[in-house]
Amino acid sequence: MRKFFKVTGIVFAVVLLLIAAGYIYIMYQYPKVPPAPDMKISATPQMLERGKYLANTFASCMDCHSGRDWSKFGGPLLPGTEGKGGEDFGETAGYIPARNITPDMETGMGSWTDGEIFRAITMGVDKNGEPLGPMMPYMYYRNMDEEDVKSIIAYIRTLSPIKNEVKPHSFNFPVNLIFRTIPTTPDFRKFPDQNNKTAIGEYYSGGCMACHSPMDKGEFIKDKMFAGGVEFPAPKGGTVRSANISPDKETGIGSWTKEQFIQRFKSFKNPDTYNITVNQNEFNTVMPWTFYAEANDDDLGAVYDFLMTQKPVSNKVEKYSLPDKYSAR
Ligand code: HEC
Ligand code: HEC
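# heme C complex -> structure
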């Protein structure tokens, strides 16, 4: 018996030691990213326009990094909060607020170099090389056209500086370790040829994919791409689920025409579609309708073209359910 305890004791000590070694290894060896590149972006008017367009539409920077009016449908941007940060995206991973990306010197990114911002967006580490949570979707931006990233940086440098001290993030265990291992070097791709609409649509649909494609253990489920049903805490209580936007005729958007698709987005340019007061425990959505409404028809059409090349998936989605205590079920 004595011997048994001795052996288990040794095994236990060895396991502990291995865990400790693994922990130290991950803490010191990761994230594996190079120093911030030495770059000075000289902004042209075309770059500023392109950066503004992307940051406010398909790249979604402003959706996450600004204040939103969740008392209105779709949570339109609160004017005067562009880039100030503060909204918490942590959910079960911890407290992970979007940062202040305005050029404010103390609380924003005024003191960051272009290279440091570039590295944060495309490799997922902060100024000091410490990992950012992947809710900052650097895993998508690492596949953008490098010139587009530079345009976005040029644009966010022109935002009005806003003094807003955002508290540092805190990651729960063990995600704090997992998050260290995700940052990696970028794999840029060129913006597709103007005539290749489906490729352009694919380029712009990273955000759509993130919200509309169900995942299992951190990987997209291959035969459920764009099938919807991904759950989000609804802004005013309850659960909202992303729609099926695969080309299935019955349960997806297969019966929509391109014009109907574009029109659905464009309708949110009209304040009547979102200036609707949403009370507690009423349906509100995280779909950034008012942001995408600023995208141009050609690009929305390209996204439609791309979606129509995807596999139709039959998946009926219930868009909204009330918090349990209110629902009849
Ligand atoms: C889905 C929401 C979301 C989107 C979209 C998003 N961000 Fe973020 N971003 C975050 C969150 C959350 C953090 C904080 C991560 C952390 O602290 O771990 C962050 C962090 C950052 C940081 C690091 C700043 C710092 O002080 O460490 C930069 C820079 C940044 N984002 C810029 C951008 C830009 C530019 C875009 C668009 C290309 C963008 N973000 C899109 C949520 C988002
Ligand atoms: C932040 C998550 C999020 C992002 C990003 C997002 N969606 Fe959605 N989307 C939703 C949710 C949730 C719904 C269901 C609630 C609603 O209709 O607003 C939805 C609904 C829709 C609908 C309505 C379908 C119907 O049957 O009425 C369409 C169309 C759509 N999304 C297309 C897109 C496209 C295209 C993109 C990318 C350009 C996109 N979405 C990006 C979350 C998102």
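# post-check
The radius of gyration is 22 Å.
The mean pLDDT is 95.
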